[in-house]
Amino acid sequence: MITAGYAQTMARYNRWQNRSLYAAASTLTDAQRKQDRGAFFGSLHGTLCHILIGDQAWMHRFAGTPAPRIKSMAETAMVITDWTELARDRQVFDAVIIAWADRLDPTWLAGETTWHSMVAGRTLTRPNALLVAHFYNHQTHHRGQAHCLLTGLGARPEDTDLPFMPEVA
Predict the structure, then answer these.
(1) 168, part of any domain
(2) Are the C-beta atoms of 78 and 49 separated by less than 8 Å?
(3) In a domain? residue 169
(4) Distance (Å, whole) CA 64 – CA 80
(5) What is d(CA 133, CA 11) in angstroms, rounded to the nearest whole number?
(6) 64-73 burial, b if ≥16 CB within 10 A, otherwise e?
(7) Which ranges in the chain belong to alpha helices (H)?
(8) By residue range, what is the domain housing residue 74?
(9) CA–CA separation, 3 vs 40, rounded Å?
């Protein structure tokens, strides 16, 4: 399904795109970032916070990093209310994801992970390769929402196309 090389490329894509979104979001006021714009997580801030908390949850399952500090999915949008803290945590965690991807063992990808899903409300077991593909797809999906919110607010993030990632181009 996927390889360690795929995970490494996507980890770098994640960092590149997060840098772009956070740079564009930094041109806005805190009120603009937190304004409910009708997105699934309400605001741009809520969407970006959800992405980070989701990444922390998956890395906890994949690599044993600290679990996010939430008790329910509803908390993912505003568990980090301070913009500076959110931006700093995002940058730090992108490095965690890259370090994990760089040492990813292909045999682990062939295994399975069992976890309790807050979303499903039960314990699930799924192939690791599928979960890693979901991990990166989840980021991309919600970053697309964040990109739309940013452009609607007049901010301009960079291109999102993978072939134009500086490390690839």
Answers:
(1) no
(2) yes
(3) no
(4) 21
(5) 11
(6) ebeebeeeee
(7) 4-25, 30-34, 44-63, 83-102, 106-109, 128-152
(8) 4-161
(9) 31
CATH number at 69 reads 1.20.120.450
pTM for the structure as a whole: 0.95
CA–CA separation, 49 vs 11, rounded Å?
A: 18
In the chain, how many domains are there? 1
Residue 112 resides in a domain: yes
Neighbours of 76 (CB within 10 A): 22
Close Cβ partners of 47 (under 8 Å, ≥ 6 residues apart) = 39, 40, 41, 77, 142, 145, 146, 149
Residues 8-51 have pLDDT tens digits of: 999 999 999 999 999 999 999 999 999 999 999 999 999 999 99
